[in-house]
Write a structure and sequence with these properties.
This protein has 555 residues and is α+β, with helices and mostly antiparallel strands. It is 14% helix and 31% strand. The protein is built from ten helices and 30 strands. The chain has helices at 7-14, 18-26, 34-45, 122-126, 136-144, 223-229, 329-336, 348-354, 358-363, 365-371, and strands at residues 74-80, 96-103, 110-117, 147-155, 161-163, 171-173, 180-183, 197-198, 204-209, 215-219, 239-242, 252-254, 262-269, 274-281, 284-286, 288-296, 312-318, 323-326, 377-378, 380-385, 392-396, 408-414, 424-431, 441-446, 452-456, 475-479, 490-494, 500-506, 512-518, 546-551. The strands form seven sheets. The protein has a six-stranded mixed sheet with strand order 8-7-12-11-10-9, with no helix packed on it. It is globular, with a radius of gyration of 23 Å. 51% of the residues are buried.
Length: 555
């Protein structure tokens, strides 16, 4: 390919699939089989195996009220807001986000799907506040429709993905769920009002999977819901562990991992076998974190490895020095005792009274981390560890206060490739903007080629306006992480109006991609005139957030 030719112009010039474009540029002629297509795509885009991302014709921006996919792909709506999920009559919550698929008996065609539910809508769920407050009935709706859903999904004989509403494994975990256990340093402390168990989980944004096959769901923008429901705000903002197959297993909030506006988790192992959990704090001027367990992972111990998340050290990244800074009471006391130290707010005496134990530190992790030298960054959201080289990727979605309007994806390299290292380096892997075709990267996942799939999160109020006009609706993009096209974005999907696409998760065979379509029609002001009616189901009188299963991948 002529490197002087703009990549996007070249795609539009031929108007055919990626493999055919590569063939044309290489002088290979007409393609007549998968093997040739794989070789050609490998030439153009640097894919190693072409298993997933080489076999689609990239789409362009769209403003349609539809989930737009490349030619040859389809989606099935698996579950939407309000759908009954089990014989008890539990219903699927609102604003689905993170998804994770757990095979049943190793199957790629039947399994449990955990789905986060992040927040609700006064227009479509609770109704408006009265005199600035919700009624008890409204609070019940507010809390029930957040949290998470465990649903059983399967692919029928016709290749259609469906939800099994007769499943005995399907259940809800909500803001009303009683007896959620606190673990780690804050459990039972005065900082959380002496609580060892709390009510509910909500504001569930993204999450992750543990090495022992449970899930971690993350509480992000929890403050408003806690206030509206009259709940103790210190009981929220944690990483929460759930066993999708065992409803009797305790649900646990791991306080050792810190309390902040958690986006997700990414779990791996240090070279000496300790568990490492990377986390992002999704707000402006917030840090990138990792937790390193004190004990070592034992595969034979199974789910009892969860205890490793109760004892360890929380760190925040100092990007100027390339070092991880311990977020501990010992480190904070050393700073407070330093001659001449003055806090940015309050007095030294007030800080000494506030911070006496590690419980005080983890409950107020953001404040302490920034004081100790954590680098404020531009909304660090999803973090994923490359399965090939132990580098990890962070979506810095944007920060208009810094002029970082379109965000970027940062790649971090731990010293000696050891996730437990105390030093790191980094590079800007891909930058949002007109040159890349995407804006506001949010959730990410890898395919088996090592290519990065990212979804975008332009706010519904910004899309298709001003500097965001060129991008159309939010979308899904594939970005090679190596080869000559490293960092180049190819658009795979476009969201319905006002929506964002979240929670991408492949089945193990990569033949199905689960994806959440969140808040379609969010700009609606009059319920009689919705800005979107996706998913356009017969009988629906409102837009409905939903999870879809995308198929059509060829190998």
């Amino acid at each position: 390919m002529n490197k002087a030719m703009n990549r996007r112009t070249f795609l539009q010039y031929l108007g055919t699939g990626a493999a055919a474009l590569a063939a044309a540029s290489a002088g290979l002629g007409t393609l007549d089989g998968k093997a040739n297509a794989a070789t050609a795509a490998d030439h153009m885009f640097g894919f190693k195996t072409n298993k997933v991302s080489g076999y689609f014709e990239p789409i362009g921006p769209s403003t349609n009220d539809e989930l737009v996919l490349p030619k040859g792909f389809k989606y099935d709506v698996v579950a939407a807001y309000g759908d009954v999920i089990n014989p008890k009559g539990d219903t699927f919550g609102y604003n689905n986000d993170f998804t994770v698929y757990f095979p049943i008996d190793g199957s790629n065609e039947r399994g449990l799907l955990w789905v986060n539910h992040e927040y609700t809508s006064e227009l479509w769920v609770t109704g408006e506040k009265k005199d600035g407050k919700f009624t008890p009935a409204q609070i019940e709706k507010l809390l029930y429709n957040q949290g998470g859903s465990v649903i059983e999904v399967y692919r029928d004989k016709d290749g259609v993905w469906k939800m099994d509403a007769k499943s005995t494994l399907a259940r809800r975990v909500t803001g009303l769920t009683k007896g959620i256990r606190l673990s780690g340093p804050a459990a039972g402390s005065k900082t959380v009002g002496g609580a060892t168990t709390v009510q509910g989980t909500f504001a569930n944004c993204s999450g992750g999977m543990t090495l022992w096959d449970t899930l971690l769901t993350c509480e992000e923008n929890f403050e408003t819901t806690a206030g509206d429901a009259g709940l103790n705000v210190t009981h929220y903002g944690w990483v929460v562990e759930v066993d999708p197959f065992d409803a009797s297993a305790p649900i646990v909030k791991h306080t050792a991992l810190g309390r902040f506006n958690h986006e997700n988790t990414a779990m791996g192992l240090s070279k000496d076998g300790r568990v490492v959990v990377y986390m992002g704090d999704d707000k402006k001027d917030a840090g990138v974190y990792k937790f390193v367990s004190k004990g070592k992972y034992n595969p034979a111990a199974g789910k009892s490895n969860a205890k490793l998340l109760e004892d360890g050290t929380l760190y925040v990244a100092n990007m100027k020095s390339g070092k991880w800074v311990a977020v501990t009471i010992e480190a904070l006391k050393a700073v407070m005792e330093k001659e001449g130290w003055k806090p940015s707010k309050g007095t030294a005496e007030e800080w000494k009274n506030k911070y006496q134990t590690q419980a005080d530190v983890v409950v107020n992790a953001h404040e302490v981390a920034m004081l100790l030298g954590g680098t404020p960054t531009d909304r660090p959201e999803d973090i994923e560890i490359s399965p090939f080289d132990n580098t990890f990727f962070v979506c810095h979605t944007n920060n208009d206060s810094h002029g970082n309007i379109h965000g970027h994806i940062t790649r971090y390299m731990e010293k000696d490739g050891d996730l437990g290292a105390m030093e790191f380096d980094f590079e800007i892997f891909a930058a949002g903007g007109r040159q890349s075709g995407f804006s506001a990267p949010d959730n990410i996942t890898f395919d088996s080629n090592g290519d990065l799939w990212t979804v975008t999160d332009m706010s519904s109020g910004s899309m298709n306006k001003g500097v965001f006009t060129a991008f159309g609706n939010n979308g899904v993009f594939v970005i090679p992480s190596s080869g000559p096209a490293k960092g180049e974005a190819l658009q795979f999907a476009s969201a319905p109006k006002d929506a964002e696409l979240t929670g991408p998760w492949f089945t193990p065979d990569e033949r199905t991609l689960f994806l959440a379509v969140q808040h379609p029609g969010e700009n609606t002001e009059d319920a009689a005139k919705p800005t979107s009616m996706w998913p356009h189901r017969k009988g629906d009188d409102q837009p409905r957030p939903a999870v879809v299963a995308i198929s059509g991948f060829k190998f």
